[in-house]
Amino acid sequence: MMEEASNRLDDYRVYPKRWIYLLAVSMINFSNGNTWITYAAITFYTNNYYSNNNAALFFNVIFMVLSIPVGFLACWWIDKFGLRSAYHIGTWANFIGNIIRLIASGTFMDPSIRFPMAITGQAIAAFAQPFVMFLPTKLAAYWFADNERAIANTLSSMSNPIGIAVMYSLAPVFVLNFSDILIFQNIAVTAVAFIPVILSVFINKSKPPTPATPSRDLDVQAPPFLKGVIACFKSKTFIVLSICLGGGVGLFNALYNNLQPALCVKGYNPTFNGGMGTLLIMSGLVGAAVSGIIVDKWGEFEKVMKVSFCIAGVAAASLSICINYENVEWWVALSIFVFGAAGFSIYPIGLEMGVEATFPVAEATSTGLIIMIGQIQGVFYVVMTNLATGKPDAHDMAIQTCVDTNDQLHTVLTWKWPFLIWLGCISCLIMGFVVFFWPKYKRRNYEAGKKWNDLN
Description:
One of its GO terms (cellular component) is membrane. The chain is mostly helical. The protein contains 19 helices and no strands.
């Protein structure tokens, strides 16, 4: 009897190929992340080069806007046709979008068509975003063991913000004049986008020959897409998680969009400003890795998320204060480090928690809904905070490092009120999360019960 039970448990296995899949999904998320944020750290250069005072904002917002309608398509597609086809769609759309942007940014192009062509390329790359950002939980669920899922999801999902960080930090260093936008920004980003195309050769299956865990066994049937969506919104745990975690994603997007202009008006140099974007993500990678290991070993999703959310709130308050002062690099850096480490530790395990709370709903559905809700909030936060900007005083105009020509001085703004609004939104999300988030671990409970039954 025991031997028979052992044989049933041996039906669940993992394959070495899962690491190639993890690398491929991580690389396309990395590439799409730096495609998205290409121009955010060089707002003023971008607006001038493309002859549009809102060019950098449009490049950013189009990713968030398109992610909503395309997100529903991606959710349905991934759950219907699997990981393989979604990966190929995302990879090729991302690469083609970059090619178009590269051509559009050339000095040989008529300046009047540069921006329309570039925003077209950006839109095509934005079409890829839901297809690649919804993959990590699907990959972790199908290809990794139950004690590997959180760390696999962490590595693949965090690759997107790492891609953002790399571009955010390097852009101000290398883009010293307008022609360098062609030389560095687009050639480099397009070259990175080609790597997932090469790796696509190895992505030839959506799932392994045998399941990695009981939750992916043949007797577990996910409901159809629309029923899955309805099931998600019938779950109180999922509603709280999607609003609070999605809101955190949206507020992160707003911070990344606003950080560079907020720092430069206080006289911080472009290299420091870009470095803060990198610090935000890299500290987040450390925090996410630690939290992933904790939940893989002990499964303490709720405690880790609540503690991390509260610490992130304290750091956000600190940042909202110090962003209004000059020559306090240490304070800005410390606030961003703590905010990144605590805030990003929530993201990958929050996506895993969405799968836990809605099991057996397909992974791409729960993940996609959380990210789409975050993007909707992100558009709102970016627009709202940009509307709350003000005119700088004479001292700020004298020390600002945003622009170096008098005809661009009207684009320099102060960010005191936008960051206070940003802090208020974070505080509301934290209070709602701590009070109302009491999850049930449906997937883990199912797997524990299945293993117990197989042993008896």
